[in-house]
C-alpha cells in the first residue's frame, strides 16, 4: 500500500486553495451584511443584495470544493 504522489500533490494544491476559500467566504458574507445595513433604503441597496447572493454561492462552492478535496486526498493516501 503506497501513496500516489501525483494525486497527493494535486490534493495539497486543492487544500491550499480550500484554505483561502475558508477565509474568503465568511468575509464576503460579512461584507454583504454590513453593506446591507449601510445602504438601507438607498439606491445602492441592490448592490448589497448582489454581494449577499454572491457570498451564498461562494459558501456553497466552498462546501462542495471541501468534499472534492478531501476525496482526492483520501484516494491518494489509501489508493482506492
In short:
The protein is mainly alpha-helical and 80 residues long. The chain has one domain.
Structure description:
- This protein is an all-alpha fold and 80 residues long.
- The chain has one domain (5-78).
- It is built from 2 helices and no strands.
- α1 packs antiparallel against α2 (45-78).
- The longest helix is centred in the first third of the chain and has 34 residues, at 5-38.
- The protein is rod-shaped, with a radius of gyration of 18 Å.
Number of strands: 0
Oligomerization: single chain
Look at the structure and give the mean pLDDT.
92
Largest sheet: none
State the shape.
rod-shaped
Radius of gyration: 18 Å
Number of helices: 2
| Approximate helicity band | over 70%
Terminal Cα span: 10 Å
Order of helices and strands: HH
Structural class estimated from helices and strands: mainly alpha
Count of domain modules: 1
Low-confidence stretches: none
What proportion of the residues form beta strands (DSSP E)? under 5%
Any chance you could write out the topology, listing elements then pairs?
Blueprint: H1 5-38, H2 45-78
Helix pairs in contact: 1-2
Structure keywords:
single chain; 80 residues; 2 helices; mainly alpha
Amino acid at each position: 500500500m503506497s501513496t500516489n504522489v501525483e494525486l497527493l500533490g494535486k490534493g495539497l494544491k486543492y487544500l491550499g486553495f480550500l484554505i483561502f476559500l475558508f477565509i474568503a467566504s465568511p468575509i464576503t458574507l460579512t461584507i454583504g451584511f454590513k453593506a446591507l445595513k449601510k445602504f438601507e433604503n438607498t439606491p445602492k441597496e441592490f448592490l448589497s443584495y448582489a454581494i449577499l447572493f454572491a457570498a451564498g454561492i461562494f459558501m456553497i462552492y466552498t462546501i462542495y470544493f471541501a468534499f472534492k478535496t478531501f476525496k482526492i486526498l483520501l484516494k491518494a493516501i489509501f489508493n482506492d
